[in-house]
Amino acid sequence: MAPRIKVPANFGRELYINSEVHGNLILKLKDGEQIRANSMIMSLNSPVINNLISDLCQSTLEMDDFSSEVVNCFVDCMYTGEIEKLQKDIFEDVNKMAHAFKVSWLSKKCLKFYQTDILNFERNTYDEIVFACEIASRAHTHLKQTKYVKNFIKTAASWKIGKSIFMQRYMADFSHLSKRQLNMAIAIAENDHRILATCLVSHLSITLLTPKEFDENSLYLLENIDLKRFSREFPSNFLEFSRFLTEISEISSFKSIQPILEKLVGVNENEDGKIASNLSYSQTSLCTNSCDSEAEELSDDESNSCAIQTDCDTSKDWTKISRCDCDVSDAEKTIIEVKDELKDQTVVEMVTTKNDAGSIILFSYQVLFNRKTISTKLFIKCVDAKQSRWSYVLKGCTEFAFGKRYFDNMPNSNVKMWKFTKTSTDIMITCNDVNVLEFNFKADSNKEFQDSSKKWSRRPIAIGIASQFSEHTFVKVT
């Protein structure tokens, strides 16, 4: 039995590590490499190693799961009682060894190192934050060390990129996240279920674009959102989330969410109608920006206030457009090129996931006219979310003001699948397979714009799409 000596203690690395005289314990590594250590020093620090040596009479320990650098650092810690050789790139494995061999004082120093070094983001970048996030998540899941997650979440207020933006990027490849990562996302979101709902809606909107089943990760996240708390603290967001799920549940491949919808209905019926009352109020508040009777003048400043920001391809040929308030001239540096050398007709498909009252979507068709590249612009705006009323402006063909012309027979659903087909004579728009506009550039333009409307007859060489919508918009040009 090893004598009772208090650890950590400095036994002196120079005297004992790889000593031919005192190194009576062999640690076998990969590729036949080995480290000689003193069995007494190792036993004093680790009850596991003490048991292997004293009770099982082992003089050789297999440590081929860890690199030479990690094992050398671990042994150095045992000898010196310090973590001088600990670095960020080997921290996680050293912490694993401390946990596996029950070196309690080293586990505590590893947690301190995590707090002072790893959570000290030098540049406050996404890569630094996600590195710390994954360490905390794995420590919690595999080692049952809950303090790592708690410490990581405490730093959220100092993130330069913000919690919501970090979560959108962390959950971008949603369907490939492990349950460990999903649990970490739930922990980071804490009580703000709006963050999780936004990420889920974004993911499911992408899924709508391709024939996929409702995936396991979406179900898992839905089952772990506290619906009662979500509805109580964020009633308007909960209402929109409920509507979205109800609409997509009609798709045959999404039938598996029906049990979740029953829970949503149950939440609405609980607490003597209090929640339902809040939701009813939220419906009204969503429509405060409507302009049913009065035309809203569209200023030049407003027409230049929304811009493209293409984050990444969501799936093949689809592009995600995020809300941005940059100048259109800057946005058009990232326009979508029209393929196949100018077709006779150009089709833009688009998905929007909510009726966002007061927000504008801009389509900028770039054409060649009098040997110059000019932009012909189509603006559409949701002017009444409750009634799903949408107004449009074709610059150079119609009045430059919203509230003058509206789409016909606009579907009332939040999730809208749009198709914009432009030819040399017309622009035709459908929404959820319903024809909402057929505009002939010559016959339907205002008389004072007859000459300007000729620009619309030209075939586009590129198209820019900009959005002021709070939810992501997805587009594809064919």
Low-pLDDT segments: 271-315, 326-334
Main sheet record:
7 strands, antiparallel
Cα-atom radius of gyration: 31 Å
Q: Please state the overall shape, judged from the principal axes of the Cα atoms.
A: elongated
Q: Quote the average pLDDT.
A: 79
Q: What percentage of the residues does DSSP assign to strands (E)?
A: 15-25%
- Helices, by number, come to 18
Distance separating the two termini: 77 Å
Helix content: 25-40%
Strand order of the largest sheet: 5-6-17-8-13-14-15
Structural class, from secondary structure content?
Answer: alpha+beta
Number of strands: 17
What does this structure look like?
The protein is of the alpha+beta class. Helices cover 38% and strands 20% of the residues. It is built from 18 helices and 17 strands. It has helices spanning 13-16, 39-45, 47-54, 68-80, 88-100, 104-118, 126-143, 147-154, 163-170, 179-189, 193-208, 216-223, 227-233, 235-248, 258-269, 274-285, 300-303, 328-331, and strands spanning 25-28, 34-37, 60-62, 296-297, 310-315, 318-321, 336-337, 346-352, 360-369, 372-384, 389-394, 401-402, 416-422, 426-431, 434-440, 460-467, 473-477. The strands form four sheets. The chain has a seven-stranded antiparallel sheet, with no helix packed on it. Helix 5 packs antiparallel against helix 6 (104-118), helix 11 runs parallel beside helix 14 (235-248) and helix 14 (235-248) crosses helix 16 (274-285).
